[in-house]
Amino acid sequence: MSEAATPMLAQYLSLKAKAGDALLFYRMGDFYELFFADAAVAAAALGIALTRRGKYQGEDVPMCGVPVHAAPAYLARLIRTGHRVAIAEQIEDPAEARRAGRPVARAIVRVATAATLTEDELLDARAGNWLMATVRDGAELGAAWADISTGRFVTAVIPSAEAAALIARIAPAEQIAAEGEDGSGRAVTLAPMHFTPRAARARLEAVFGVATLDAFGAFEELEVRAAGALVAYLDLMGRGTLPRLDAPVREGVASTMGIDAATRASLGLGRDGLLGQIDRTRTAGGARLLAEDLAAPLVDAEAVRARHDAVAWFANAPGLRARLRALLGQAPDFARALGRVGAARAQPRDLAAIGTGLGRARSAAALMDEGNAPLPALLGAACAGLAADDPLPAVLQTALGLEDDGTATRSIGPLDEGGFIAPGHDAQLDALREDASGARTRIAALEARYRETSGVAGLRIRHNGVLGWHIDAPVRAEAALRAAGFGHRQTLAGQVRFGSDDLAGLAAEIARAGEAALARERAHFERLCAAILAAAPAIAAAARALARIDVSAALAELAATERWVRPEIDDSRVFAIEGGRHPVVEAALREARKPFVANDCDLGGKPLWLVTGPNMGGKSTFLRQNALVAILAQMGSFVPARAARIGIVDRLFSRVGASDDLASGRSTFMVEMVEVAAILRQATANSLVILDEVGRGTSTYDGLAIAWAVLEWVHDRLGCRCLFATHYHELTRLAERLPGLKLATLRAREWKGDLVFLHEVAAGAADRSYGLAVARLAGVPAPVIARAKAVLARLEAGRPMVSIEGELPLFAAVADDAPADRDAPALAARLRAIDPDRLSPREAHDVLRELIGKAGEG
């Protein structure tokens, strides 16, 4: 390559300018190539070789590449590391470009980002992949979120203060905000023009082909602006090709339990915690819906009871449930297959998945009709959607050769290989295939004739992508083949390759028939895709209905195997749990063959419990399990208890565990205080609050004072249901004057010098914290335990710290019976005289040397 840009390089540079900060995958034959800085970045991220290709402006051009067939895996790795990738495809026949003497025409067909993926190999099948757009206007925030892999599209308007909680709940793969509005620095920013009300509304009305969005609901301006910006982003990333989206659905204000990010983290709601423990779904769509339900428990008691009815129906029909779950296990993820059709990225296997999925859906509806009890409303509506009279399943079955129940009877390959349309569906296509097959039969006969006439027993007629059809033989037969009149084409180390006029004619026949057959199959493919898109709303509804059935049956299976019960849900402020258990801890103990101790919790008469007890005694587990029971109940699940009655919890707050936020400059105590502040300002009388060890990150008196004041605020001002665990035994005195406060403790006892945790919740307060016993169990050295015991005894006797500081390890030996240092009083007096805030670095150094010297003399 010369120093000036060749036509190919000029084309690349033009496309790279359009790609912006995205890495450019530039299609060259069977590879995607990257050049210049993109190549260096990709080579480092992917661990592949960085090479060179020619020069440009006097410098070597860095280059690396990945095979097209393996591109999805590399693409996933780049996106996981935070990159966006622009994909430039060849958009014309290379032969045409060669005849014209110019580079193959290429264009960027999409920009792959974390939230715009649809390929199965790039997505977690059991998790949603959300794109979220937000726009603020003072105290309110408009939000829209969509999963383009399934078409789900939701909008909402919420108070700006609740934005972080909503984002934590949705956990978007990408977030979009207007320039200047992203305070977190994590969002992709778009120009403000994409968020203007008029432009956003016009864009949405054009996309959904309606005269007004009012056809879908009464949307507020803020959510229209967010939704319009989301669609604009998809249009930009798709380079004018938009994926299929369902009509937007409004989420009502306060329709779900408020759970902030800190609470989600402290309770472990994700797939490595509670979600992973309760997931018994058999379909990918069901797993995604279960995750959504768990992330957003309902606050409408009637809606919660409707979900419980569905679970109870399956719980009471174990035989039918088992048969249904076996059927669901054979259902493909046809919601995401529909997403690929809508994004123009489908393959024939996606059409087959839709046909199979619809067939499984109808079979599921028919099976449920066999149940002895009438279907509850939620399942009845789902079955009605599955059994809808639609000709599409029959069309797909006939075209693709599926069984009546959707079962695929043969392998269905890629679009560019053909062969996916079933024999007998198209007579003309069958004829073309027969022509190609007949030509192949004649090639076999020709091979036998050539072998006989040439006398070369090892002669074969073969095909590859470079030479096409050719005669292949051992290199030692070259003279015999030349003598037989064959035309030489290639010589390799051990093989020689020839051609002939007869073979060229047959090859041309095969090529013509194959190209015609493939073109006809492509036409069938396009017609089937169009038919699917025409029926897309019904297909999407069927996928959601099947997912809801799967979730209900899975929760029934969970209840049956884990001995969970149906909770009573109402609009009161009751919270009465009998024999409650922590599902994740119980499962871990079961693996270790240890029992879990169940406990009751009744916040009805006294809604505020002050829980004391030893470290390791189970306080945090008890607090968390009651929060999890509330979440499970309101998401529509049965719960791990003997019995449960719960008044709807509007918001759940959990301040459990210690953590810091070093990236934001927040200490552990600062993080704790921020979370406590949010609880005290946002909780309502209908909330459930879990507080553990408030105030432990500062001095004893500071911490006690803060915990005392927080406890009073919760009792006097919030009046909400609250479990408050502490080691500040002084707080138990508040029970004498706070009528809504109940004392509870986790029982433990010492036996033969060892501490035994009973994990039982009992009324009353702990007599002590057993901290030294826990320290001994943890392996703290015995001399340290002995010294701590002595100090504790003096403190509990009422001696102030200043009176015993001369006995601390700096001034005395560790053992109690060691002789005291006669210089200790002088050292103590010297230390008290030092004001560290007034010392210069030099003076501090001198003082330290002085003290070291005196310690050495002693």
Tell me, briefly, the overall form.
Answer: globular
Q: Output the structural class.
A: alpha/beta
The DSSP helix count reads 29
- Tell me about the biggest sheet? 7 strands, mixed
* pLDDT averaged residue by residue: 90
Using only C-alpha atoms, the radius of gyration works out to 36 Å
Which strands sit side by side, in order, in the main sheet? 13-23-24-25-21-26-27
Strand tally, please?
Answer: 27
Which range best describes the helical content: under 10%, 10-25%, 25-40%, 40-55%, 55-70% or over 70%?
Answer: 40-55%
Which strand-content bin applies to the residues?
A: 15-25%
Report the uncertain regions: 810-820
Distance between the termini: 82 Å
